[in-house]
Model the fold of this input.
Amino acid sequence: MIRLTHYGKDVILKVFILVFILTISALFIQNNVYVFIVISISAFLWIFTLYFFRDPERKLPEGYKSNHIISPGDGKVVVIENIINKEKNIFEAGEELTQVSIFLSPLNVHVNRIPLTGEVKYLNYIKGDYIVAFDHKSSERNERTEIGIEDTFSGKKILFKQIAGFVARRIVYEIKCGDKVIAGDRFGMIKFGSRVDILIRKTSRVLVELNQKVTGGETIIAEL
Done:
């Protein structure tokens, strides 16, 4: 049986009500063609909604180490580049970082997972635009949540972002500063198409390639 995320229960309920109304209204339509269209639309909406909010179980990969960065989401790697951190967050302003960006299409699993075991040291929600998520400008212009985690034992740090896209209009996260988090655990989602950015120190070793498909909670993105 398909597991559904509780992050989508509000949308699932709304779609169920809409589908129910459409299905009932079809009973009063005399034209068979219109009945077929209405039923088809209802079935598509319901199946797509259940598919989108699926939440499969995931396990950390064999050989996982505490300094590995786990992919926060399912999708395709669209950016691997070195950048300069523009403002102080969990990293210092002006620090050289490596950015890895993953684009999540509407067909990917959208439940987000913690990439590094440690403590949430930085969290910032920013209202912004809704340009397409695969546009590189979305990292700095779109609505997003920035989350900084530090491994309190080794001092290793990571900053990652949940970024809303053109279709996605709601970011969900269930963590706050001071929370102890474990790599691979669920913490939120971005609804209907999105992007996640991972920022790590330049000295880290990236283990994925451009256009590679990754799996949230399973694929190792980098080694700190």
